[in-house]
Automatic annotation (TrEMBL), chain A:
The gene is LOC107889210. This is F-box/kelch-repeat protein OR23. InterPro entries: F-box-like_dom_sf, F-box_dom, Kelch-typ_b-propeller, Kelch_1. Gene3D superfamilies: Kelch-type beta propeller. Coiled coil: none annotated. The lineage of its organism: Eukaryota, Viridiplantae, Streptophyta, Embryophyta, Tracheophyta. SMART domains: Kelch (SM00612). Residues 23-62 form the F-box domain. It comes from the Eukaryota. SUPFAM superfamilies: F-box domain (SSF81383), Kelch motif (SSF117281).
Automatic annotation (TrEMBL), chain B:
This is SKP1-like protein 1A. Residues 7-66 form the SKP1 component POZ domain. Pathway: Protein modification; protein ubiquitination. GO terms for biological process: jasmonic acid mediated signaling pathway; protein ubiquitination; SCF-dependent proteasomal ubiquitin-dependent protein catabolic process. SMART domains: Skp1. Belongs to the SKP1 family. It comes from Gossypium hirsutum. Keywords: Ubl conjugation pathway. Residues 108-154 form the SKP1 component dimerisation domain. GO terms for molecular function: cullin family protein binding. InterPro entries: SKP1, SKP1-like, SKP1-like_dim_sf, SKP1/BTB/POZ_sf, Skp1_comp_dimer, Skp1_comp_POZ. GO terms for cellular component: cytoplasm; nucleus.
Length: 419, 246
């Protein structure tokens, strides 16, 4: 939350160093108490008194929550309804059903229609990488091109920073954050845009971003080019050991000589992460046998924060949740989503706080309100069904997102973050 | 008894002496340090803690040591309940507990008490926080207004009212929520049945019997009766009474 300059200077002049945050308690204990407050309540409580304003906007609070009391971190979701250059991303707190808009990305007059970018969180920052967009400087004008831009949102300064661009431009790529080494790895990708359901290039290059040096470094490329894939970093003993890439599409063939159809990959690839570089890619082979019907849905990974059990990988395909078995390289059905979505809409799938969140938009327009809301397109109600993989139970949440445009989960990018 | 555990003597600020088992007393890192570095037979002075507070703290430590060692048959949920009741004290006692836990360095008690105060803060508006904790408002009216406008968080619930999710359902469960007439209520029962009702449909009906055909015929059918009461300004209070029927 940026402190307006006039208020900040008056605050700094007027604050008495001995002023207690909570009268009756020493300031370090009061700071500990305030660090237990969920992130979404911080702004609401700043008008209590000036010492609270200073403390709740400070870096000490963030580092206290991050390093000393990890259990009290709020698990939030950053939702990008549309191109983040023109429409604000939103931060959502599912525990307190609170929404907050973030400032949009710095606008570039030449580029528009950004989609299929990837958003990943590393520490208290959100990164927006790559994507597919239209560039007014390109020729021909109506062909989308992949982007190599990288942006980072800093929650302490509430601003977007532009980072070093990727070596190869890409959209729809596999991406994973490596917190233990403060790095981000990206693999594959292409130039496909959501406006065109086919076509687009694919690449096979793999890069790694080092946050401290603000540099991209090329790693060993994928065996074959691949886009639309998903990637995650598997942790073992506190450190990320392997980077997995699953699924995606490579070649395309034409049906009846006219319609392009993607050839989807059924296999997974693993790269071992070493201290100063990646290893070679190891192919795990197809995840479905010759006679089995392959399933292509959204894939996510649920990590065990305490490190007790290995991470679990789940796929959501058409009302079914499948769990990946690493030993046999096969998927098994775990359960079904309790309440099915209307057939035409798609699900959004994200992992928050070690639980799988399956989201749909339920049309919230009441029959009595259609007369009034002709001009306004309502975003509808967001219905989330949440699955706990260990307890194997479902629960649900309902909330009304504050943005006007309806969410389309086949194109909306979401990113979980802990603050 | 035949217990051969060592005992440690603690003297408080008001000259009360407590004799406790070593395993209980060393939950406090301060006492543990003094015991391991000083003469084990002498009495340890805990100057900043009064007798009442120390007695409560020792209850806490004993409960947690016994449950961890398996001496007491208590499930994690029951221990959680016990902790929740432990901190249901007046604010002065709570602050004394915090200061004592901070001084004696008992991390789990410090976390528990601080989380309790944080929960108190979380549910209040700034004016209420100032009254409760005796904090002076040092903003001018314009500055306070400016800071309030900076808050961009929109809560789907307004001060505790809103969409309610009832997670666990047992026979004869009663539950209450206050919500506005436009929100929904989601109910999950037996991990298999999901009910979602729009409040506007529930309003204007004295009580509703809702049955949902479960997918598995052996699970109980849930009867939910809802009574509603208008509490003004578009909010209604709903009383849910669930009965499970086989």
């Amino acid at each position: 939350m940026p402190i307006p300059p006039s208020l900040a200077s008056t605050l700094l002049h007027q604050i008495d160093q001995d002023q207690a945050l909570i009268p009756g308690l020493p300031n370090d204990v009061a700071a500990l108490i305030l660090s237990f407050l969920p992130y979404s309540h911080h702004c609401r409580l700043k008008p209590t008194c000036k010492p609270w304003y200073i403390f709740l906007s400070s870096k000490t609070l963030h580092s206290l929550r991050r390093h000393h009391r990890r259990r009290s971190l709020s698990h939030l979701l950053c939702v990008f309804p549309e191109d983040p250059h023109i429409s604000s991303p939103f931060l959502f707190d599912p525990q307190h059903l609170a929404w907050r808009p973030l400032p949009p990305l710095p606008c570039n007059p030449h580029e528009y229609g950004l989609c299929n970018f990837t958003s990943v969180s590393l520490g208290p920052h959100i990164y927006v990488l790559g994507g597919s967009l239209f560039d007014t400087r390109s020729f021909p004008l109506d062909r989308p091109s992949p982007s190599s831009s990288a942006f980072r949102y800093n929650f302490l300064t509430s601003s977007w920073d532009r980072l070093a661009p990727m070596l190869s431009p890409r959209g729809s790529f596999a991406c994973a954050a490596i917190p233990s080494a403060d790095q981000i790895i990206v693999a594959g990708g292409g130039s496909r845009h959501t406006l065109f359901r086919a076509a687009g290039s694919r690449i096979c290059s793999v890069e790694r971003y080092d946050v401290e040096r603000d540099e991209w470094e090329a790693l060993d490329g994928l065996p074959r080019f691949r886009a639309g894939c998903v990637g995650f970093a598997l942790r073992e003993g506190g450190e990320e050991r392997e980077f997995w890439v699953m699924g995606g599409y490579g070649d395309s063939r034409t049906v009846s000589g006219v319609f392009p159809v993607d050839e989807y990959y059924k296999d997974a690839l693993v790269m071992e992460l070493k201290g100063n570089g990646g290893g070679k890619w190891r192919e795990l082979g197809d995840m479905w046998g010759a006679g089995e019907t392959p399933r292509f849905g959204k894939i996510v990974m649920v990590e065990d924060e305490d490190g007790g059990s290995p991470p679990a990988i789940f796929m959501l395909d058409d009302n079914d949740i499948l769990r990946y078995d690493m030993a046999s390289n096969r998927w098994q059905k775990e359960c079904s989503v309790p309440r099915r979505a209307p057939c035409k809409s798609s699900y959004g799938l994200v992992v928050l706080n070690e639980e799988l969140h399956v989201m749909t938009i339920v049309n919230g327009i009441d029959s009595t309100e259609t007369r009034r809301s002709r001009q306004q397109k309502r975003a509808g109600t967001l219905f989330m069904q949440i699955y706990h993989p260990r307890k194997k139970t479902w629960r649900c949440l309902v909330t009304k997102p504050p943005f006007r445009q309806p969410l389309d989960f086949s194109t909306t990018v979401m990113c979980p973050i802990q603050l | 008894m035949g217990s051969t555990s060592t005992k440690i003597k603690l003297r408080t600020s008001d000259q009360k002496v407590f004799e406790v088992e070593k395993a209980v007393a060393v939950q406090s890192q301060t006492i543990k340090y003094i015991y391991e570095n000083g003469c084990p037979d002498s009495v340890i002075h805990v100057h900043s803690v009064s007798g009442d507070i120390l007695s409560k703290i020792l209850d806490y430590c004993k409960k947690h040591v016994n449950s961890a060692a398996g001496k007491e048959d208590i499930s994690p949920e029951e221990l959680y309940e016990w902790d929740a009741n432990f901190v249901k004290v007046d604010q002065n006692t709570l602050f004394d507990l915090i200061l004592a836990a901070n001084c004696l360095k008992i991390e789990s008690l410090l976390d528990l008490t601080c989380q309790t105060v944080a929960n108190m803060i979380k549910g209040k508006r700034p004016e209420e926080i100032r009254t409760t904790f005796n904090i002076k408002n040092d903003y001018t009216i314009e500055a306070e207004e400016a800071v309030r406008r900076e808050n961009k968080w929109a809560f789907d619930m307004l001060g505790g009212v809103g969409t309610m999710v009832i997670e666990e359902l047992a026979d004869d469960t009663m539950s209450k929520c206050v919500t506005n007439t436009k929100s929904r209520v989601c109910v999950i029962a037996a991990n298999q049945i999901v009910m979602m009702r729009s409040i506007s449909k529930l309003a204007n009906k004295k009580s509703i019997d809702v049955y949902k055909q479960p997918q598995n015929p052996t699970t109980p059918r849930i009867k939910e009766s809802v009574k509603q009461r208008n509490v003004g300004t578009g909010f209604i209070e709903l009383f849910f009474h669930f009965k499970c029927k086989m």
